[in-house]
Structure formats: structure tokens, C-alpha cells
Amino acid sequence: MITGAIFDVDGTILNSLELWENLGSRYLLQKNITPEKNLNVILEDFTILESSQYLKDHYQIKDPINQIKIDILRLITNFYQYEATLMPGILKNLKILANYKIPLAIATNNDYKLVAMALKRLGIFNYFKVILTTDDLHTSKRSALIYLTAAQKIASIPQNTLVFEDTNLPIKTAMKAGFKVINVTKPFNLKEIIL
What we know:
- By secondary structure, the protein is α/β, with parallel strands linked by helices.
- The protein has 2 domains: 4-15 and 85-194, HAD superfamily/HAD-like (Rossmann fold, 3-Layer(aba) Sandwich); 17-83.
- The chain is built from 9 helices and 7 strands.
- It has helices at 17-30, 39-43, 48-58, 65-83, 90-99, 112-121, 145-153, 168-176, 190-194, and strands at 4-7, 14-15, 85-86, 104-108, 130-133, 161-165, 180-183.
- The radius of gyration is 17 Å and the shape is globular.
């Protein structure tokens, strides 16, 4: 029996992966620094804070970590405020879960304000009981803490909770913690999974 669902945001709810894949490079090019060719792969599973630390250390950027993070967030604020769109099929699946009265949470590496801004603009903010970020919990998706905390906040246990993710590391993390994981990059029928 499914008693809760937890969603990643980027690539799962919002069509924003292209932005994230090039974000480190955009930041560096703004500073007239040539990024390494595989930078997007290196930063793929990093939080914004971890990405800031990597850029500072690897490219010897003199700005403090908090300033680098602020600059990166500034680059993407306009995207979330004005451009981000919903992933195909997400609204249909949110409505299905709402019809079954399954409480929903968000577990994201992204910044709370950016996520809330986009979800409000797109009219889906109220579907979610809680939004948790890895920065707020001082963790990453290499740890199941964010999923366990989200499940607790929606009064569900891992075995009865769906986790919607789109990348390998978080999928493995949630599975190891006992969650039922849906890889949104593969076809699935939500009604069959719930019933």
C-alpha cells in the first residue's frame, strides 16, 4: 500500500536539466575562465554548495564560497522565475496521487526559493506538503537522510513510499533505504503501481 510519495525536482518535475548540465560552465565563462570539458559530469551529483567548493578549489577562485553560491543562484533565478517548464506527464501523475489522497513531498539538491518560485508560477506548489533541500539538512543524496526525513514529515514509511528520481546515485540511495523507486526516465504506469 502506498502512503506517500517523494519527488526530485530537476529532470523529474521541472524540465531544467540542460540548465544544470551547463551551469558550472556558465559561471566560469562569466568570469572569463575556460571550463574543463567534462565539468558537467564532475558536478552532476553535487549540491550547489559542493559545486561552489569544487569551482573555488579547482579553478582557484578568490571569492568566498558564499559569494560563489550567490553568483550561481543569480544565474539560475531568472530561469526558474520565468522559463522553467513542467516535465511531460508530471501534472497528470500529480493529479492521480492527489485523487488517491497520497501526501507528497519534495527532496531536492536545489534551492528552496527557486523551487517554490517555479512551482508557484506553474500552479503545482500546493500539491506538496513539504519541500526539503539537501542544503537545509546539511546532506547530499549520497545519504538517505533527505528521503527518510521527507517520509517522516508525510507520515509514511520507506516500504510504502514512492520516490521519483531521474539519476542513478539518488535512485540507488533511496532503494538501499527501502523506498519503492520510480526511475522517471523509463516508462511507468502510476495507477498500476499505486494499486
